[in-house]
């Protein structure tokens, strides 16, 4: 810990013009658990330097590459070097830094999808296990209070045996060939060398997949899927649909698409059991609709005292004050800090490397099924 009691954090990625790095910086600071003290913010050393300057960091702790950062930080006295690192680079730069930082004793929090192949995902899972360090994957939608409520409703058996699960994640921002305009986020997401084999599948399909496994507590066993490249010349999917069967006997569908004009961040989950059902929509994240066989539908809302204890623990402000993306993201950082400090039993508090590896298997299974035209196992 630093003198202020904060954990010293480094960042890989999140340079000038980047999207999610800035979100991570806001969220790691929200609860006062972390101090950002070092970084390799870009693959371009000058951009990394500029980012560090803008953030007011000690220039000696702003590095031209993540490789230099691992080496130099490891050489600092224990009470000065970073304790954890946040990896917010494109998908193909998750595996390398994760392995290196774990090997040198640092805790890691990394953005999704875990990596670009099952083989690399397994190597990451082994590295986490061998290191004894904490690894968290920011499938941030698990940090919403009403998702935790949904999970409690399913797992406590109140909805009965689960029969149907529908997950949908629709966006419209890649309906045209935005990557040709030089838009950075579109460029690497549509380049299989950097995004991995899944386009929309890796970018948003893995969030929907993770959410449905997180809420139901069941695992997806097999899929019958198809993927489409709607935009001509795009080498990765911008749309995919999967029928699936789950380990608890339920089945359902997952659709993800980035060509649905007008949809912004339309992540929706619906789960139906023998006694009731639930519906959640990320664009209205403080609402959870709960349906019952012989009672009227309930609208449960964030931070109300009638919620389950796990859901209440994720709310931050009184009911009626909207909470959203940043707070949910910060809930994962808070849990990550607690795990590092070994403060409490953190089962299911944040997605793990195993969850991430399942996400990569999901991408690969959808692609296999789509290519073969048949059901495939995950
Ligand atoms: N959890 C979420 O809701 C969410 C949302 C957006 C993105 N993401 C994930 O976050 C990651 C980054 O996405 P983004 O949209 O912020 O991308 P981005 O292109 O906006 O930013 C990526 C940053 O990484 C830097 N970078 C690239 N290679 C590097 C290297 N070798 N060393 C150091 N820095 C390097 C780039 O310079 C850039 O600053 C992706 O894995 C993406 O899937 C997650």
| Fourth-level CATH superfamily of the largest domain | Dihydrodipicolinate Reductase, domain 2
CATH class placement of the largest domain: Alpha Beta
Radius of gyration: 20 Å
Percent of residues in helices comes to 25-40%
* End-to-end CA span: 41 Å
Please report the number of helical segments. 12
Mean model confidence by pLDDT: 96
Q: How many domains make up the 3D coordinates?
A: 2
CATH architecture tag of the largest domain? 2-Layer Sandwich
The string of secondary-structure elements, in order, is EHEHHEHEHEHEHHHEEEEEEEHHHE
The helix-and-strand class reads alpha/beta
Task: Give the bound compounds.
Answer: nicotinamide-adenine-dinucleotide
**pLDDT < 50 runs, ≥5 residues:** none
Strand content: 15-25%
Looking at this protein, list some descriptive labels:
single chain; 378 residues; alpha/beta; Rossmann fold; Dihydrodipicolinate Reductase, domain 2; 2 domains; nine-stranded mixed β-sheet; five-stranded parallel β-sheet; 12 helices; 14 strands; 34% helix; globular; binds nicotinamide-adenine-dinucleotide
Write the layout of secondary structure elements.
Layout: E1 7-13, H1 20-29, E2 34-40, H2 45-54, H3 66-74, E3 84-88, H4 95-103, E4 107-110, H5 118-131, E5 135-137, H6 145-155, E6 162-170, H7 184-189, H8 192-195, H9 200-216, E7 220-228, E8 239-246, E9 251-257, E10 266-273, E11 276-281, E12 287-292, E13 298-301, H10 309-312, H11 325-340, H12 353-372, E14 376-377
Helix pairs in contact: 1-11, 4-5, 5-12, 6-9, 9-12
